[in-house]
Design brief:
alpha/beta; Transcription Regulator spoIIAA; 32% strand
Length: 122
C-alpha cells in the first residue's frame, strides 16, 4: 500500500494508492503518531480516492479507532477527514467515524479532498 505524506502548515494530507492491507494502515498510523510534527498539527486528511482494492473489514476500523483514542490522550484534539469515493470504503469509513463519536479526535467523511479541506480548515 503505497502512501504519501504531504505536511502542511496546520496538518497532513495522507494519500493512499493501490491495495490497502490492514497491517499497513496500522503501521502507517504508528509511524505518524511518532513523527515530531504530529504533535503540532490540527488536522489529518486521509485520501483513499485512488486505491485499487481493499482488504479491510469493520473489525479493523475498530482497532484503528481504539489506537487513535489512546494516542488522543497525549495529542489532544485532531480533525480527521476521510476521503472516499467507493461504496465499499464508505461503509468502512462510517464504521470508523461511529467508533470515534464523542472522542477527542473528530472524524468526518467526504467525497473530495476539496470538501475535506473546507471542513478541516474551518
Amino acid at each position: 500500500m503505497p502512501h504519501t505524506n504531504t505536511w502542511e502548515k496546520k496538518g497532513l494530507l495522507r494519500k493512499f494508492t493501490g491495495n490497502i492491507q490492514p497491517e499497513e494502515i496500522l503501521s502507517s498510523n504508528f509511524a505518524l503518531h511518532e513523527h515530531p510534527s504530529f504533535a503540532k498539527i490540527s488536522y489529518l486528511i486521509n485520501d483513499f480516492s485512488e486505491i485499487t482494492s481493499v482488504s479491510l473489514d469493520t473489525n479493523h476500523t475498530k482497532i484503528y479507532a481504539s489506537t487513535d483514542d489512546i494516542i488522543s490522550a497525549s495529542k489532544g484534539k485532531l480533525n480527521i477527514a476521510i476521503v472516499v469515493n467507493q461504496d465499499a470504503l464508505v461503509d468502512l469509513a462510517n464504521s470508523y467515524r461511529n467508533e470515534m463519536k464523542n472522542r477527542l479526535f473528530k472524524c468526518e467523511i467526504f467525497e473530495t479532498v476539496v470538501d475535506a479541506r473546507k471542513w478541516v480548515e474551518s
